[in-house]
């Protein structure tokens, strides 16, 4: 392997320590700590794990964690009422509704009900639009974390060619907007893109978020490129076990990339750290303190 390994666990730990220190300063100044409310509907096992990890991380950072567990048959109206109460609760600075929601609930309507100032996932149309317009916003956590990892190994991004493979509203599109904000020349690829291999070979920065296991071959990587693998899939091995893999052939790509994230241990840990960062930023903006860059 010649590529530098981008250690997302270590970067996330550093960020979380910095956030915890900032939370202590905030609490000293205002007499209370920022609060994050997580709303979980139903008992999807994966969502349960995500919520538990978020609650632990929030408390470790010294913030208040509020958990709202609603039954799987909750009505949309009851869920919206819950969000209304959190919007007007001054002890809650960030609100996160764990996705996916059960069938029959309109996800867009639920997300849109969250006050944009408390939208720590950065999913509301207001925050999406503000990011697209290059204005101050709460940025979606995964792309924000990816940006930090990229800057950690490549501080100067102006003019570089960036390719984002995957065009979802929560990862691909905001990722492209953040790279554009850094003055990269950005291309977004998706499942209908022609000649993906050629486009990959031109990319100085390659971010892949498709959920298709190891779809990017090592030979597609431009020598020296920074490769960020957002995807995470569990695949079966020949010995009957399973393992987690990303969207990139890690071993092959490591031969030509300049730097690359592993899966797991790359992007994942940064997502939760950025959720905490957004909660602190939201709390600071709500008391009109400048948020850290
Ligand atoms: P979505 O399914 O919402 O979007 C996938 C995107 O990939 C779509 O734009 C789709 O194209 C594109 N795509 C699918 N197949 C191909 C292909 N063969 N070639 C090119 N593009 C393709 O996924 P998400 O954005 O929500 O997540 C992507 C991955 O990232 C998943 O593995 C997910 O688990 C992971 N993830 C990890 C996070 C973390 O914290 N580590 C956080 C969020 C996601 P089209 O638009 O044409 O359908």
Walk me through this protein's architecture.
Helix 6 packs across helix 7 (172-181). It is globular and about 55 Å long. A hairpin with a 5-residue loop joins strand 9 and strand 10 (242-245). The chain has helices at residues 8-30, 45-60, 76-87, 107-113, 125-132, 141-153, 172-181, 196-201, 250-256, 267-286, and strands at residues 4-5, 35-41, 64-70, 94-97, 161-165, 185-189, 205-208, 226-229, 233-236, 242-245, 259-260. The two termini are 34 Å apart. The chain has two domains: 31-115, Rossmann fold (3-Layer(aba) Sandwich), CATH 3.40.50.10860; 141-268, NAD(P)-binding Rossmann-like Domain (Rossmann fold, 3-Layer(aba) Sandwich). It contains ten helices and eleven strands. The chain is an alpha/beta fold and 293 residues long. NADPH dihydro-nicotinamide-adenine-dinucleotide phosphate (NDP) is lined by residues 142, 165-168, 170-172, 189-193, 196, 209-212, 215, 230-233, 267-268, 271.
């Amino acid at each position: 392997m010649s590529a530098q390994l981008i250690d997302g666990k270590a970067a996330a730990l550093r960020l979380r320590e910095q956030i915890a220190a900032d939370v202590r300063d905030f609490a000293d100044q205002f007499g209370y700590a920022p609060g994050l409310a997580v709303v979980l509907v139903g008992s999807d096992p994966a969502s349960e794990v995500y919520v538990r990890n978020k609650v632990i991380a929030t408390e470790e950072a010294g913030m208040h964690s509020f958990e709202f567990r609603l039954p799987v048959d909750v009505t949309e109206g009851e869920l919206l009422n819950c969000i209304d109460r959190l919007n007007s609760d001054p002890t809650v600075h960030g609100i996160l509704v764990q996705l996916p929601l059960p069938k029959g609930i309109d996800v867009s309507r639920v997300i849109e009900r969250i006050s944009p100032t408390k939208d720590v996932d950065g999913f509301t149309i207001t925050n999406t639009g503000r990011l697209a317009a290059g204005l101050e916003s709460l940025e979606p956590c995964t792309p924000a974390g990816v940006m930090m990892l990229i800057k950690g190994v490549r501080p100067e991004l102006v003019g570089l060619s960036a390719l984002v493979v995957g065009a979802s509203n929560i990862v691909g599109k905001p990722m492209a907007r953040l790279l554009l904000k850094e003055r990269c020349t950005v291309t977004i690829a998706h499942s209908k893109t022609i000649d993906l291999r050629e486009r990959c070979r031109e990319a100085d920065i390659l971010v892949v978020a498709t959920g298709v296991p190891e779809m990017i071959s090592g030979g597609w990587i431009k020598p020296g490129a920074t490769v960020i693998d957002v995807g995470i899939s569990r695949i079966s091995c020949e010995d009957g076990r399973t393992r987690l893999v990303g969207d990139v052939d890690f071993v092959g790509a490591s031969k030509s990339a300049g730097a690359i994230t592993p899966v797991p241990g790359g992007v994942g840990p940064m997502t939760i750290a950025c959720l905490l960062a957004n909660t602190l930023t939201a709390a600071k903006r709500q008391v009109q303190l400048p948020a850290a860059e």
